[in-house]
Predict the structure.
Amino acid sequence: MILVKLGGSVITDKSRLRTFKADACRRLATELLAAKESLVLVHGAGSFGHIEAKRHQLHKGFKEDEQLEHVAKVQRDVRELNLKVIEALIEGGIRAVSFPPAGAATFRACSVRSFDADAFRKLLDLGLTPVSFGDVVPDESMGFSICSGDLIMDSLAKTFRPKLAVFCADVDGVFDSDPKRNPKARLIARLDQKSLAKLKKSEPANDDVTGSIYGKLERMLAMARYCEKCMIVNGNVPGRLEKAIQGKKVVSTVVVAR
Amino acid sequence: MILVKLGGSVITDKSRLRTFKADACRRLATELLAAKESLVLVHGAGSFGHIEAKRHQLHKGFKEDEQLEHVAKVQRDVRELNLKVIEALIEGGIRAVSFPPAGAATFRACSVRSFDADAFRKLLDLGLTPVSFGDVVPDESMGFSICSGDLIMDSLAKTFRPKLAVFCADVDGVFDSDPKRNPKARLIARLDQKSLAKLKKSEPANDDVTGSIYGKLERMLAMARYCEKCMIVNGNVPGRLEKAIQGKKVVSTVVVAR
């Protein structure tokens, strides 16, 4: 099985509220057709989730009744994105069906407390491609919280032990400094606990409602244990995802558990 | 708790593919605000589901691989409708959040095999209004099947034992003959097993992919056991749903278990 995360920064313009990148998503769909194995997809919420979630502090859980209207609105927005992704995937030839995280998992303190992959398995057995996504979810200790796409990736990896997990980002992989600010930044082809520790010392982190980039990388390292191969590729560069799926050499960061 | 089904014939134009009745849905949202108790909503698929589902025989389960593309497409269409309903409800002041049936239930031979209301309960506890809907779902014996909104209503009623369950239809209730063809048709104010048996003898049934009208009424009679009151009102007539929720006298058919 192959597990692919379509990052929120690839399928949306993260800086502009609810801006979907339809062309990118349709292209990624055709690249996904390279998969000979069954596929499970996850996508981030991008600008359909993070901006409003942050404005109303939804990542901090229930504080006041007024937030609930925004829980409903952000969930609605995220489903609008999911619908657009599903549509683009179907147009690209993938038999994509939506599966929201709260239909399979329960959450406690921003973590997955239980995960039942049965519904995913049934969809896969039928020959369909389940598509889950980052979402606002009920949380047993916080009332509600944000379930990132990465969190679902982790649960899916533990269950399905995929041959390959690919994270499509808007950069070529992990760099030794921020490639958007430093043109001399160098790509780290192989990221492990040691290279991450080194990186953390040298570079400050930018946060979004699903945590810092280092938190994300820590989770990827943990998740890599359950995958034959786990990698980050640039989803904005045509062909990268396809090559990764085909097992070809590709510009990327391979995440190595230990 | 109050359980309300927004019939597919009320929120969509059932004869025209994917035609949403936004005004009707927004009006029903404001009528729902009359509820002093927590609300769980279910909506039918209307012309976003039935037309294509019937064309590709999805209600008969898996027959050939070609159907799977249409399973994905009909699921997508139904989610488009759900998104529109959620949007209209939020605009009307309801904190509506989507919950697809396959996130809570498993299915076998067009029936609910297991139903876990935990996610609905969590959303209710938060003060949100869960909204489920008729959908194409994985089915353990048929591959996939159609889960009607009525089927979800039944499972929800068994779990929550609602004070009131209201089915919003495009007619005033159940008539002794088809009111669309016979102007002398008389409304049955109180429907029980006996009056249904009488009705069945005198009138032929029209089918959709979720079964004949008599099948629906049989299920309502079964479900009425779990509700303090169970009724059918005309969702197209402004104020009927509101009055039903307020416990006021209203043109309707009350469904009585025995």
Remarks:
- The CA atoms of residues 183 and 244 of chain B lie 25 Å apart.
- The mean pLDDT of chain B is 94.
- The longest strand of chain B covers residues 164-169.
